[in-house]
Design goal:
Blueprint (H helix, E strand, L loop, with lengths): L7 H49 L3 H4 L50 H4 L34 H9 L24 E10 L5 E12 L3 E12 L2 E15 L2 E11 L5 E6 L4 E4 L5 E3 L5 E2 L3 H11 L8 E6 L4 E16 L2 E10 L9 E7 L5 E8 L5 E11 L6
Parallel strand pairs: 9-10
Antiparallel strand pairs: 1-2, 1-15, 2-3, 3-4, 4-5, 5-6, 6-7, 7-8, 10-11, 11-12, 12-13, 13-14, 14-15
Length: 401
């Protein structure tokens, strides 16, 4: 029905169409906006998600590790695969360093066992040598002869002694040396010791050697100087016979301050060495000595024939509870200062032997003074040094009683 003016229905229809057109445009705009946001968010999300993947897969340039070239082959090792962890380069090869030579032991000739080495004065009381009236000895050029290879029995005994002391020497043997026993004398000694921690000590001692050519007696007393007094710390006594192999001990005793006396018996009828402080037993080898007599036996060997000192000298030495073969070698000719003046000496050394004794023993023999030891030095494994030097020698014509 037409409205007023003739156009009422047409006007309402136009209004409705215009309203619908505006709504479509708004809807289309909103849909476009939403779509744009969805596209934007999806694009940003894809970019953010790709970042970790790049970090987990580094480029080949980042992963490759150039290993050092090996000089031995001259060919560089292959590159490491990108997806595999790089193997660390092999450690450089080291050249083996030579082992240090064993250091000879300076008072073990007089103190064979390791227990003696722990005593600051163990090396002091042993080897102080007598020097009778000056005796001219022909000058002999010390030409070291090639070291004599020990017999298989001696080598086996020394090797076995590290693990089974007592049984290792059963098949051993030692060389018989020419000897010329030194005359009787009394020796005044000076003692100087430096502990491993650097503390210095001084002391004095006396050794008496008496022999009538068929028997002998020797005694040693050693003490430390403490403030204004002297304290005796070690006493050694030995007695026995003289035979064609030299000094032949029968009984050796040792008394240390604060300890009981111990005795070592050289049972020549049974051919064994036994101890009061140990149940061990050793064969009595040719030329066996104790700690008090070893310096006099070395002097007798030098007096008889100086050329015997050119090779190794093996001597079985009995201590207060053990025994071991000492091997001495000639170091060379040296001059030392003493209170008796400057003396020309020949220096013998006994290196340490693992499993038996750990100290180095050096003994200086004076050819012009009948080859008596005029200085003895014991260098312990911890660096402690004990040196005993003869300061005075008095000839003693007394016979062994």
């Amino acid at each position: 029905m037409p409205g007023r003016g003739g156009f009422p229905r047409y006007t309402s229809t136009m209004t409705l169409v215009a309203s619908l057109s505006r709504r479509r445009r708004v809807f289309a705009l909103c849909a476009a906006t939403v779509a744009l946001h969805v596209i934007t968010i999806d694009w940003i999300g894809s970019r953010l998600g790709a970042q970790p993947a790049t970090a987990l897969k580094p480029s080949v340039a980042t992963v490759r590790l150039q290993l050092p070239q090996q000089k031995a082959s001259g060919t560089p090792p292959p590159d490491v695969a990108p997806d595999q962890p790089a193997a660390p380069p092999p450690p450089p090869s080291r050249k083996a360093k030579p082992l240090p030579l064993p250091q000879p032991d300076a008072s073990a000739a007089l103190a064979p066992s390791s227990s003696a080495l722990s005593d600051p004065l163990a090396g002091v009381a042993q080897a102080v040598a007598a020097m009778p009236a000056p005796h001219v000895v022909p000058q002999v050029e010390p030409r070291p002869e090639p070291a004599q290879e020990p017999s298989p029995s001696v080598a086996q005994a020394e090797a076995g002694n590290q693990e089974q002391p007592g049984t290792s020497l059963e098949q051993a043997s030692t060389r018989r040396y020419k000897v010329d026993i030194p005359p009787s004398a009394t020796f005044d000694l000076e003692l100087a010791r430096t502990d491993a921690n650097g503390v210095n000590w001084s002391g004095s001692g006396k050794m008496v050697w008496q022999t009538d050519g068929s028997t002998y007696k020797t005694s040693v007393e050693v003490g430390l100087s403490v403030l204004v007094t002297r304290v005796n710390v070690l006493e050694l006594n030995s007695e026995g016979e003289i035979d064609d192999a030299g000094v032949a001990p029968r009984k050796f005793t040792e008394k240390r301050r604060g300890r009981s006396m111990t005795a070592t018996h050289f049972q020549r009828n049974d051919g064994r060495i036994t101890f009061s402080a140990s149940e061990r037993s050793y064969p009595l080898l040719t030329g066996a000595q104790d700690r008090a007599t070893i310096p006099f036996q070395l002097a007798a060997i030098g007096r008889a024939n100086v050329n015997q000192l050119g090779g190794d000298i093996d001597i079985l030495v009995g201590d207060n509870r053990d025994a071991a073969i000492y091997r001495f070698h000639l170091v060379g000719e040296e001059e030392i200062d003493t209170k008796m003046g400057r003396l020309v000496t020949w220096r013998l050394a006994r290196p340490p032997k693992p499993g038996t004794y750990s100290a180095r023993l050096d003994i200086w023999l004076a050819p012009s003074l009948q080859w008596f030891p005029v200085q003895i030095r014991n260098t312990e494994a911890n660096g402690a040094l004990t040196t005993q030097t003869v300061s005075k020698i008095s000839m003693n014509n007394a016979q062994a009683q």
